[in-house]
Structure prediction request, 189 residues.
Amino acid sequence: MVAVGAPRLRDTESEGEAMRECHTRRSTRQRSDEGRQEGMALLIVVLVLILISAMAVAAINHAGEESAGGRRTKTAMDALFGASAGIEFSRVRIAVGNLIPFSIPLDGGVQVESRRRSDTTPQPIVPLGTTGLASENMINVGEAIGITTEMYRVNATAETNAGAIAEVEAKVSYVGPGSGNGSTAGGGY
Prediction:
């Protein structure tokens, strides 16, 4: 006979199996939850790496664009300074009466010519004469005997090896003694 309060062997075995099955389901569920968490962590890490990589590529592209912009600015400034140097060179030539076309190379691969940008060959410095100075917005303070004031139109175009082109056009007045061709010593601008 079996006592009333004592567990039966069969019940004990089935309870043990039930507990083992429950424990197995619980540990499987825990492993499944842990796997999901690990998968989410991996996904987040991959997304963060993609974001950092995109930011690095954007920074590299931006640096390249800034560098190219700096080169373009330097090239344009080289051309502008070259054209301005051409105007100064023209002033020296006017002072000695040399109005012929010029083409001179400067340092840094800049070529300066006495021409407009639209011209293909160097042009001579153009004398505008000694009249009409008031119309050129110049102050006329009077003239001394034997002093002439001459006006010249000077065009200087500079081109760099990189392809930048600058053109400067100036009207130069030359005040000098003598025959009016600016060739006598002692003249000035």
